[in-house]
Write a structure and sequence with these properties.
The chain has 254 residues and is of the alpha/beta class. It is 39% helix and 24% strand. It is built from nine helices and ten strands. The protein has a six-stranded mixed β-sheet with strand order 6-7-8-3-9-10, with helices on both faces. A four-stranded antiparallel β-sheet has the order 2-1-4-5, with helices on one face.
């Protein structure tokens, strides 16, 4: 199974955010997208499933069908949304629905499942993320980490070909980051194909099998995480890691 992104382009006014992005995604790939803030990482994810409307580009799904991301509508847009799952920074749960109802929603509305079948799948996914006992709780009664785990369960319940994770830990208190990263790592180990945008560099380095460095709307470097992190070829990528290392280093020692 191969999914291909072809020539995805997006600009906001005169600012080119994505400048002809091409990418091949194999089944089971965990692709980490890194780079400075404001360089199109989140926009790329949102363009893939058309939450953002790109000016150009297409996606070839694993069945060989190519969907024009600019003009897709109707059945094509539905197939695109069924094939891609999205996990957002801010959870995007329905506040008036329980954890169980949130996970069931897409199965009922998009996949048109009956309630009994949808509930069975949703309970399994909540169990996978360690929240079976919280199935009847509402988002306001859950921690940020728990809400994000429900959001991941909701995305996985749809069995997408490609899971898109947009800074899934950035809105969390530090104490809850680890539990969400553990769930993502578990999904990766189970063979879920995903693209992950994150500032958690050590996590990207350890869980991804391919890393992409995006800057100025272009892919400056891509490859094995150890190569990209430890031996970057592009000068801009080297500069980025030097600055990151400075931020992570203590200012003084006792």
């Amino acid at each position: 199974m191969t999914i291909q992104l072809k020539n995805i382009s997006k600009k906001f006014k005169n600012n080119v955010v994505l400048d002809g992005i091409d990418l091949s995604i194999e089944k089971g790939d965990v692709i980490g997208i890194i780079g400075p803030s404001g360089t199109g990482k989140s926009t790329l994810l949102r363009s893939i499933n058309r939450l953002v409307h790109p000016e150009g580009g297409s996606i070839v799904l694993s069945n060989g069908k190519e969907i024009d991301l600019v003009n897709a509508k109707g059945d094509d847009l539905l197939e695109l949304r069924q094939s891609t799952g999205m996990v957002f920074q801010s959870f995007n749960l329905f506040e008036r629905k329980s954890a169980l109802e949130n996970v069931m929603e897409g199965l009922l509305v998009v996949k048109k499942m009956n309630k009994e079948e949808a509930k069975k799948i949703a309970l399994k996914r909540l169990q996978d993320v360690g929240l079976l006992d919280w199935q009847n709780h509402y988002p306001k009664h859950m921690s940020g980490g728990q809400q994000q785990r429900v959001a991941i369960a909701r995305a996985l319940a749809m069995e997408p070909e490609l899971l898109l994770l947009d800074e899934p830990t950035s809105a969390l208190d530090p104490e809850f980051v680890g539990e969400v990263l553990d769930i993502i790592k578990k999904a990766a180990n189970e063979g879920v194909t995903m693209i992950l945008v994150s500032h958690e560099m050590n996590f990207i380095k350890n869980v991804a099998n391919k890393v992409i460095f995006l800057d100025g709307g272009k892919i400056l470097e891509e490859g094995d995480p150890k190569e990209v992190f430890n031996n970057p070829k592009h000068e801009r990528v080297r500069e980025f890691f030097v600055k990151m290392n400075r931020l992570e280093s203590p200012e003084y020692y006792l």
